[in-house]
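Internal tracking record. Fields below are filled automatically when a chain is submitted to the structure queue. Please do not edit lines marked as system-generated. If the sequence contains nonstandard residues, flag them in the REMARKS field before resubmitting.
Queue: standard
Priority: normal
Entity type: single polypeptide chain
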Amino acid sequence: EYLIETENRNLQHEQEKIRLKHQLQQALQDENSQSITTIENLSNEFFHDIFDYLNCYEIFQGFSMLNHRFDDLLSSSCLLFKVEIYISEHDEASMIDYRRFIDINRRKIFSLKLRLRLDNDNFLSLFIINSSLNQLQSLFIDGISPATLIELLINLVGLHRLLSLTIDTHNSDGYSNNIYQLVFALPYLKSNKLTFDEDDSCISLPIATDQQTSAIEYFTIDHSITFEELFILLSYTPKIRCLKCSIVDNVDENIQSLLPITLSNLTHILVEICLIDFNYFETFMKKIFCQLKYLSIIIQAEDIAYLNAYHWEIFIVESLPELQKFYLTYKEEINDQHQYQVYPGQPDQFVSSFWCEHQWIFEVELIVGESIMYTIRPYRKRWYEYSQDKLVNYCDEHYQSTQLTIVNPNDDRFHEKILIDIQRILNIAQVYHLEITDNEVLIDSLIELLNILPELNTLKIHSLSLKKSRKFTALEEHVMYLIKETIYFKVDAIYDMDIESAVRNIIQNIKRDCNKHLRLLCFHASSADDELIKQLEKMIENEELILDYNITRIIDCIYLQWK
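SYSTEM-GENERATED OUTPUT FOLLOWS
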């Protein structure tokens, strides 16, 4: 799968950098090797690996004309180059240098990235990109005008190794049809991304014939299009595997009249929906026959039907039975009146057996005074699921997985309307997990939140502070008030109290109040090490705070769990 392959390549890239670092350290520390200044003792293979992470132009500036060994290495047919050139202004000297460099190495360049100013199109008249770049596999150009782009695309037909093409034209100037026709004519192209910064494109191509189809498999349409325009473009890409696009409403469009299309290889769709109701989107999806495994939707539309879990369940079961990963983001803007669309049906629609079986969970982010963001995504482990066995037994059933994240809780608007916004969220889903991301959380704000979220199982805050608190003076009283009904509690930082004091006070309060809920504490400590763990163990045992417990450290987080 394309996205998984990309993640694997990134991981391999990082692992390769670590391997090269260790190889270099080993080579330089080898007692039999010469001084660090004699780097030519390192193997050619080592330099090939190093050069793969560098811009070719920089390689030549640093290694050419050092000695015959590096001259031979740079001229070797086994060494292919990645070239990245940024032209920020008219610089005749640099233009001459770049031209000379590309002319000398044009048969050794496999990746070319050009970032231009819009008034630098003469660069492409100086540096001819044509079939003489016979090793070129990837081409990226940012800042090219549409007219010059058309000339370039005509020359690219002879590049038999060109697999990836990324173009940013800033605007189409009415050339979008010509541009797409020329892109689809590139016989070996597998990946294409075309960006128009201005939404001035209008696709009016005819539906493709069998002779006009493209080999493109990974297709990013980085400008707004209508349903009809998308179906036209898809007719040219029958081998498509991954589609990324942004679809806008067209009031004059009759989506029912669009003919269905079969895309047997299509497994991934990433789409942004703008001003389109759910029923139109559903109709659109049902007209694409494919084996979809990955669907990501970002919704910029005021239609609460996108949060109707029952409709999604029916649609996925009937139309997307192979779907494995589902991402949905729906944004509600907070207006001055804090008025919202009526939510259809009962709350907690996303915790049925269907969502549980697929392990897709529902989350909410409230940016105080700005927006509410509803998200559906595949389950992944959260902070409270770590212990000595790396995983705590997951005591929360799926129906208690909804998490609320609050941003800017200390905003001046907090005490005015936030209760209305949270009540809106509770009409859609009960909240069992709360996270507050701000650097400093006031006790007053936390108390108000806990009063309206009585079902919390976990609470995660960055820090506790007594500053500006209107009601309390004893920190441990505040802490215990906040956590007495939770199961897991995490604080990234506690001001005015060290970790030992915090653990002691919390456990003593639990014992005093006979609290039977809280069973896991997690503290973030930048100084966390094995010695701190030993100190905590010694304190717990000497003071007989708890008997059956386990304490462990994962990086800079300390987990204390007990029965």
